[in-house]
Give the backbone structure.
Amino acid sequence: MNLSRRKRAPSDVLTQGEVDLFLSTCKEHERPYYPIFLTAFRTGLRLGELVGLQWQDIDWNGRFIRVRRAVRRGVVGETKTGRERSVDMTDQLYEGLQALQRQRKREGLKTGTGLGPYLFHRNGDPISQNSVRNVFKRVLEKAGLRNIRIHDIRHSYASLLLSAGVSPVYVKEQLGHTNISMTVDIYGHWIRSTDRGAVNKLDGSVAHPSAMRTLPKMKRRNLLRLRLISDNGAEGGT
């Protein structure tokens, strides 16, 4: 079952332009939900992990979030893999969550409830996942974007990083996959090859004649000397 899930590559992901459009539309029409969707798109957290986030999970100095728990059917428990992980914050997310914390403190002063543990809450409890899903659908419609699942935010996060040339190992750690093969199986076709010329390293230190003209004079002279030594050795036999 897990194997078939891993082999089914997600096809409905948002481009960077579509992500920007979604977030700007959310900020305009569903502003209270903007911080949770900004967090989703900038971290790739699962929905249950998002609504389970607490202020104590944020390392402001290190600029990362410790993902320690998830909410399922209203019950707070461990993450899907049963392990904690750290997820880096972008500068925009860092500033956005600091602004949210200041807002929550002001709200807590008015109500006398204080800051409260959860980032995204309703009356102190984690916000309903169905509420987040419903707002997600409304924002997609307002933005004129196609109807996708909220879990596709996570897929969009991974595909955008990999398409930008980010290491699959880093993406694997951010997503909390148990092994790199899972990341490659799901997102392999988004991994950008940056090693097109790497095979030329197999040629060793003797450059191809077409590349010799671009080398400094001294280096050119040394490489020619190496080539002569190599040729003489080949003629004499070893």
User: Anything to note?
Assistant: The CA atoms of residues 42 and 151 lie 13 Å apart. Strands lie at 58-59, 64-67, 70-72, 75-77, 85-88, 121-122, 125-126.
